[in-house]
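Weekend entry, working from home. Most of the wet-lab plans are on hold until the incubator is repaired, so I used the time to fold the two sequences that have been sitting in the queue since the last round of cloning. Logging both here for the record. First:
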Amino acid sequence: MSLVNPRKKLSPSSSHRNAPDKVSARAHAVFRGNGLPWLLLAPSLIILAVFSFFPALQTLRLSLFRANLVVGNEQFVGLANFVDLLSSPKYRQVMVQTLIFVTLVVVLGLFLALGLAFLASKPIAGAKFYRLMLIYPYALSPAIAGTLWLFLFNPEVGAVNSVLGATFGIKPRWLDDPLLAFGLVVAATIWKGLGYNIVFYLAALQNVPAEVTEAAEIDGATPWQNFWRVVFPLISPMTFFLLFTNIVSALFDSFGLVDILTRGGPVYGQTGITTFLLYQLYEDGFRNFKTGAAASQAVAMLLLVGCIVFLQFRYGNRRVHYGA
């Protein structure tokens, strides 16, 4: 005898009708109180407010004042700080130097990283070891990387000058000559960020479908044509991403290398040849205690990065190809 009441049995159709109701109930689940979400977000919001939002607003306010960090007096001058920046020959030289520096670091760094990543993606013996050694420099802090390069290129006891002196009888003054010092900072910055670029390019190259490159070879494409006409367009989204991250890194992450290697010098023209925008901001704000001038430079750099982002996403992605 059956113990189940046939009247309580559910037909298959009724059970299927109830299933979507349960799914929709789960999909539309909400917090029971309005305060709980804000309570969960409170720690992050407090940290952002104290260390990000408030300093940013304070910087915007100080950019409109002529202030001194030591004296403490503030005088409202409106946009006079920005007018002084744009009319200053020294600051214009710093802007030109920064533009040349960023262009060299980004272009040479991406090309070098792409070539090394392409070689490291080949199935050769010891590939894992080579990849680890290529990525290793990125693990170093800028201060340590700068110290290493300072010891290597020391004019008197550096390893590079020791080899050059024994081989060719020359010992260049790397940190005293403006052109050599500028090239040294560019090379150190490229070397420091090389591992970061190689990691992303390796991932992009390994995701290129083998069928596409094989089809190009069958059609008679040379290795050079295969890479630039087939592989490079497929990894253009990664290049587009690395282009922006390298520009921002060259603008903001080169401070440690410059401070350790050259401290903004040697002097060339109105200022030091390796004095870039961020280092000039540091000198005005923390050496000369010109708080208002430093704040206006920070706002100018913020506007500069905003323009770079707008131009990249407005015009740069026209040459980016998504999908095979």
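Second, folded right after the first finished:
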Amino acid sequence: MIGIISYGVYIPKFRIKPTDIAQSWGKEAPEVEKSLGVMEKAVASYDEDAVTLAIEAAQKALITGNINPEDIGGITVGSESHPYAVKPSSTIVAGILGMPNEYLAADLEFACKAGTAGIQLLSGLIAQHKSNYCLAIGSDVAQSKPSDVLEYTASSAAAAFILGQDHTIAKILDFSSFSSDTPDFWRRDNEKFPSHAGRFTGEPAYFAHVLGASQALLKKVKMKPQDFDFAVFHMPNAKFPKEAAKRLGFSDEQIKPGFIVAQIGNPYSASSLVGLAATLDIAKAGQKILLCSYGSGAGSDAFVFETTKEISAYQKRNKQTVQSQIKHKTYIDYSLIAKNILTKYRI
């Protein structure tokens, strides 16, 4: 059965508190923290982008899984902050990792679900025995207009998952998707920052798709929320995933291990995948995990994973867990972020 062989996460060490951002713009800091539930967010350094983050995460996955990059026959990089408009991120990552030239490469864009879309697509490549291993990555240096509400949560991180059929640590039991043309978030070509539809991003967008994909999958596999040990939902803020879990019938305890938004913010394509990695960091053999991503525009991918007996030995080899990276941090001042914005976008 196809599943996860190894995974790696990279979270930049720099952090800033949304309250500091609010104060810089003369806004009520306590209200920001209360409404979003995010205590701090991860910030990429001035010399980091979605590609460098993806490389860091992928290298960790290769090392921990003891996988030779020459054995990987497919790679996808999902992001909405690809550094080039016309030039693939996936080939840059593959070249740095040392993958051979005989591989399928694809850059994916679907807002915050571009990473999970890669897992679905590459699963098919493995199922057809076209490759022994494939690498699916979600990586973002999230973009936000200065002083916009997105600036309080938009963060940076990457998660990489190596898929295969041998020695899996978590089997993919099934997956399902739910999509529609719902314009809740967008950025036209040549525009510097994304726009969003405010409160419209909630009920008809996030909840309709996350609940739609999750409910369709639960029906498909004939399972109920109580059949799962853990659940992970895309985390644009701290309120939405908790509300989605509640409506579906999942408890706070089930989502707690993967609930990383309060500590690192929303790294877009990496959000739900970092949550999955954090859950795998502590999961035991034979436990089931529901994962549901969300991408504006709009769509959700839902998965059912079941951990195997291989996960215990894997966890002992994994020296850089999600929580260890969350704790490894250095706080920065908002003036540094403002300087980077001015330089990058020539404002």
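Plan for Monday: verify the second prediction. The domain at 170-310 is CATH 3.40.47.10 (Peroxisomal Thiolase; Chain A, domain 1).
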